[in-house]
């Protein structure tokens, strides 16, 4: 008795395979597009932070104001600046808090020059970018790190328009602002940097991220 032979299923032709691939790609694109649309609908939109008057970082109507008296040569101030950048996505970029920078240039002449340079950067709406560059390029106190030539070189590296920046720095036009801030700090009891003021409360020294976040939350709740 002859053995029966089962008919083997023929593999799909190249044409059929192309149809399956094309159809699958279309389905995938539709699914991904639908997911992106739903995600855009469900995800909250964060408004971009508004920088006003140079030394204000955050939205003008933010309910919590954090003033910080700082010296660009102060290593603890550099850590405080890093702290603010760490908390920015949660509080500053969302409009809950704003930071107001106050100069307290007391360490030496390079502190004054660096503060004036930051003000010149502020004329190009880049105060905070330049300030962060200064804090991350400290190299000791009054050892030449923040002499005028270096400050001008920093401006180029940050991407400022150097002709205007250099003219501003050479003119010393912001020296009075730096001196005024420093006097105001002394009048308000500032004796060291960094010193924070949050709703009239003076906090001297560096806070931990949790401490500053808790302080902001308490202020928001009142």
Characterize the structure shown.
The protein starts with 13 loop residues before the first helix and ends with a helix. The chain has a 6-stranded mixed sheet. It contains 8 helices and 6 strands; from the N terminus they run αβββαβαααααββα. It folds into 2 domains: 11-43; 51-221, Glutaredoxin (3-Layer(aba) Sandwich), CATH 3.40.30.10. The chain is an alpha+beta fold and 222 residues long. α3 crosses α7.
In short:
With 222 residues, the chain is of the alpha+beta class.
Strand order of the largest sheet: 1-2-4-3-5-6
Compute the gyration radius: what is it? 28 Å
Domain count: the total is: 2
Residue share in β-strands = 5-15%
Write the layout of secondary structure elements.
Elements: H1 14-42, E1 51-52, E2 56-57, E3 64-70, H2 75-92, E4 97-103, H3 109-122, H4 127-135, H5 148-158, H6 162-171, H7 175-187, E5 195-198, E6 201-204, H8 209-221
Parallel strand pairs: 3-4
Antiparallel strand pairs: 1-2, 2-4, 3-5, 5-6
Supply the key terms.
disordered N terminus; alpha+beta; 222 residues; Glutaredoxin; 2 domains; six-stranded mixed sheet; globular
